[in-house]
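Limitations
The structure tokens in this dataset are predictions for the assembled complex, not deposited experimental models. Users should treat interface geometry with appropriate caution, especially where small molecules or nucleic acid strands are included. An illustrative entry is reproduced here so readers can see what is and is not provided.
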Amino acid sequence: MIVWALLTSVGINLGLCLLFFTLYSILKKQPSNLEVYAPRLVAAEEESEQRNGFNFERLLPTAGWVKRAWQPSEDEFMSATSFDAVVFIRIFIFSLRVFGFAGIVGVVILLPINYLGSQLDADSSDLANKSLDSFSISNVNDGSKWLWVHFCAAYIFSGVVCYLLYYEYSYISSKRISHYYSSKPQRNQFTILVRGIPVSSGSSCSETVEKFFTEYYPSTYLSHSVVRRTNKLQRLTSDAKKLYRRLAHLKSETNPQRRSIRDGFCGLFGHKVNALDHYGKKLETVEDNVRMEQLSVAGKEVPAAFVSFKSRLGAAIALHIQQGTNPTEWVTERAPEPQDVHWPFFSSSFIKRWISKLLVVVAYAAVTILFLIPVVIVQGLTNLEQLETYFPFLESILNLTVVSEVITGYLPSLILQMFMAFVPPIMIMLSSMEGCISFSQIEKSACTKMLCFTIWNIFLANALSGTVLYRFDIFLDPKEIPGILADAVPAQASFFIAYVVTSGWTSLLSSVLFRLKPLICSIIKRPFSGKDSDELEVPSIPYHSHIPKVLFFGLLGITYFFLAPLILPFLLVYCCLGYIIYRNQLLNVYAPKYETGGRFWPTVHNSTIFSVVLMHIIAIGIFGLKNLSLAASLIVPLPILTLLFNEYCRKRFLPIFEDYPVECLIKKDREDQNDPTIAVFYNKLSTGYEDPALMPIRHPRSTDDHNSPLLQAGV
Amino acid sequence: MIVWALLTSVGINLGLCLLFFTLYSILKKQPSNLEVYAPRLVAAEEESEQRNGFNFERLLPTAGWVKRAWQPSEDEFMSATSFDAVVFIRIFIFSLRVFGFAGIVGVVILLPINYLGSQLDADSSDLANKSLDSFSISNVNDGSKWLWVHFCAAYIFSGVVCYLLYYEYSYISSKRISHYYSSKPQRNQFTILVRGIPVSSGSSCSETVEKFFTEYYPSTYLSHSVVRRTNKLQRLTSDAKKLYRRLAHLKSETNPQRRSIRDGFCGLFGHKVNALDHYGKKLETVEDNVRMEQLSVAGKEVPAAFVSFKSRLGAAIALHIQQGTNPTEWVTERAPEPQDVHWPFFSSSFIKRWISKLLVVVAYAAVTILFLIPVVIVQGLTNLEQLETYFPFLESILNLTVVSEVITGYLPSLILQMFMAFVPPIMIMLSSMEGCISFSQIEKSACTKMLCFTIWNIFLANALSGTVLYRFDIFLDPKEIPGILADAVPAQASFFIAYVVTSGWTSLLSSVLFRLKPLICSIIKRPFSGKDSDELEVPSIPYHSHIPKVLFFGLLGITYFFLAPLILPFLLVYCCLGYIIYRNQLLNVYAPKYETGGRFWPTVHNSTIFSVVLMHIIAIGIFGLKNLSLAASLIVPLPILTLLFNEYCRKRFLPIFEDYPVECLIKKDREDQNDPTIAVFYNKLSTGYEDPALMPIRHPRSTDDHNSPLLQAGV
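Predicted assembly:
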């Protein structure tokens, strides 16, 4: 890529940004889009009075929302959203600081040094026609003394990143503790999940649990609810829900023709009958089945139970100390919030769960490693000659320069992106098969999986051009790795710069800002879509697909810091955009379905450490290739020091993200003792962990019951 | 090595065994040796009436002691010794089973197959002159179908070893639990060690601890004792002890000449003075210093304390749940038994301990890796030419065949053994610097260190002949490892067979059975040795040097199972001897100083798994070298399955060895509530963890005070 091309691309994308911002500020003001762009506010019914009435201002773009997104202080933001949202936004603040420092050092010091080198053939003195590679470290002459500047920059930058990581970890952990102190009693704080209950033949699971906990926790044990196998029931309730929707839709239908259907084979033959009667009868049958299944399911106990205690300390004791003499029985784990429980997957025995975990690891490895194969094959089909062979009539079109450039330049990456779109659901599926029992756990696990997947399949596959990557034997030959990386990674600098400018900026704006899918849905208002057209959905932010994306750009910035500092200003723009946009969708769109207490921050920390160490490994390779073996050896202590720093942070901060200490637990417990509402809370607690599928079904004709527990079971 | 040489060696060593057994059964009957061979019985004063009187039977060898060692059942053995001793003996039982099975398969099936091969040059048809290599897998023809028998044997043997491991792990864990149920209340069960106490400037450490635990554990907290910096005090008390000994000896001295010494420079000039007066005065000064230091030491608080609770559950709660919001403060760990505490090393802050741990890891790696260098250099000095150059007068002696054979054959291995003798103390030193606060922890950690050291420096260094081992880059090239091992390991089979027969049998008999060092000491009865001649020492078995030795032979047996099955019968003999000998000296000699509850069994388990996987890796290499690549690939699942089995065992059994579950804790606590002696126990508990150096010193002239706490401080 040459400078001129980059500038053009940046210009186009800046223009696009401006256009998107304008469009967004108009679109969001349309009352019909309010449910797409501010469902939180709609849900809170704050702006409902504004929904009617037309004024001209609605068609003018304004920048007020940008100001509103910047304005609230962190505490205000936290009270308006959730602690998780604050931690998520801290990723951007952290990245802004890192790239701010890196950008100054990179652009002011390293970039001129790289540019003044003459290693690459510097024929063209015309700046605009220079290759971007002239700005990368590849252009510095082999063995040049200037490389020592890069060497120092690597040391200083690593120090700064570590300092910022430490600061951020300590800031977030203190926030986490103070957020806990200010929180109201929550049911999951008092509850644990017990699995592997050893049910003897004579008694039920419920009796066993009751006996065990009344014996060993006489003063703190409150209640329990045994988990039941409700897969069939969940299927039935979801059927009932669909039928009910169809009925509700038919009732609102005015065309009598549409209110009748044919019975018989495939609905093609047979008599026309009244559809209302038909579905009504069907619904009644299903409802009867649901009730029967609810009765029979009482016997289908899974040897697992949610056990609630009267105090947080009681729950913590049962959680942290092994219960029975057999460590695979009475296995305790933290209970998720009731609405966070993922009911369908409660595999019974310890060994089954263990095996399913192993299988998921194997499946994940297979998906990650083999992902590129279909992608490359499909991409291969899109080369021009093959297209012309398969579709001869396209020949004239394909011969146009513009079309051929689009096809060869964008189609392969479009196909990659399309394939990538299938990945988050696969990761969510794998994580839920792993035995995670809550959506938050699934999301956290899927987030980590997705991150590794992205690094492997986007960064490494592009940097190592696929072929080297799949020569697995390089992993059996670790000393070759720095050399291979140092050879391949700088060469891909211009590709990744383009990637940040186009894919980074544009996808952030279009997908996150516009919420294209719900927007289109709301325009089409499909009656038989999964949801009712007038059913308001306040989405929860899908951290598992957003965090890996953001962290991947962090990885690019850190890895390319001294290789090709040109990437840094573009990443800074990305972070600024991200900061504004996410603060805005978090304030208006997303509502937290559950709260992890910022438990995904360690993932952010670890992935940053990974990026820094990757930078060091590449640095070792680069200095080796550039005939500066002294610098290459002197870099070696840097990754070791970084890993030691990481180890220290693990000891110093990680336990805070795993659990709350006795000090906090007891202070909160004592607060409760003086709380007059605690008795009410205990009542709520003892029924909190009933499977929603077991709740009595609501009257099917009342239309205000969409937020009934039935919905939660189907998520 | 040829068969004839092996048979000769076996013959000589069997003869030696018989001789040693005879000598031992005579020696142990001499009343003067009773303190060496049965100090436990002497301590129990059971046989004191037998000490005088002479009969002729004393000079006749008898085998009664062998019978007595076999006889007691496991429960009797446990009540006579300790649970740790039982677990130690289980290692031999386990090994007997493994080598019993392996021996039958190896000798009956594999050995004939190996022998009938013709890969090695089979010129000599005379059995006695055949090389031992004809019995190893090297003799099987390349690509021979018979190798599939070895392949099957590897699978079956791995299965049997895993089954036996599982059985043994489950047996020992159930024994551990039942041993806990039957144990009396012990002080360490009620106590934890708290480190990193955040002392504020206004208050003392003791006040901080008192305040924290009375606030958060009001119902279970009992007492605490703060650790103090007593290094100087310990030096002083040890000085006082030495002076006191000298005085006691002088008093018993009858020669008046010896009761006077010269004062002045180095004792060479100056007047003769009465030694009694001289040392008496010195002792008084030191004792005054001790008292002054005891007073001043009260202020030298280390921010660490032993905190005792009224119940085991109370201690377990404080142990398992993080205490303060800062995870590096109020760090809790299991308290050792009071007599097990290693007082000198109480490094204060979290970060200091962390750094010292890191430094120890580095030092250990350096010692392990660099150990062979001085050994090889010294061994190099002992070759004949160099000896003749340095010591020309030895020339005539060195030219004798016998002498030269001894020097070239035995001297290098003797030097290696001498160097090896320095290693256990070094490992103990490293482990104590690591921040371990009890002898049992130190011993466990030193045991693991010693094991890795032995495998690296004896097995790998011999198998890979040193040179390959120190080409570190093979570790950067993991795929080469199976080939290198498969090439080198079988070639060393005859060396290791000889090693088992000579070093294994003989060292077991001479060092463990004879207790040579104490025997010689008791004969010389040195007056100024560290201990009084008539002071009875009941030693504690040094597991850290015995377990690695035994496990190393286990490694040899498993690794060579299908490579050279000839080794197995000799290992069986070793196990039998070990079983008899250790049961005997555990019954008579060693008394436990502390009890770990068999916590070293996981080390045994892990090292066996390591051996099995090593065998698999070598098998992959062997089948590759023998042109049977299909078998090589089909072996690959075996190590994976073995590691999965290990992972399962970790989940199923390891937690039992880490801590006792709530079920056990509460049952024992309830037993205590009905125990009338518990109040007395609580009293004992609250003073149990005082540093013995802080106790008032006993009257120096009373000679019966040798077992005073002063002694413990000096260990």
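Some entries come with short summary sentences. For this one: The interface with chain A takes residues 177, 215-216, 316-318, 320-328, 350-351, 354, 358, 473, 476-479, 644, 648, 651-656, 659-666 of chain B (CB under 8 Å).
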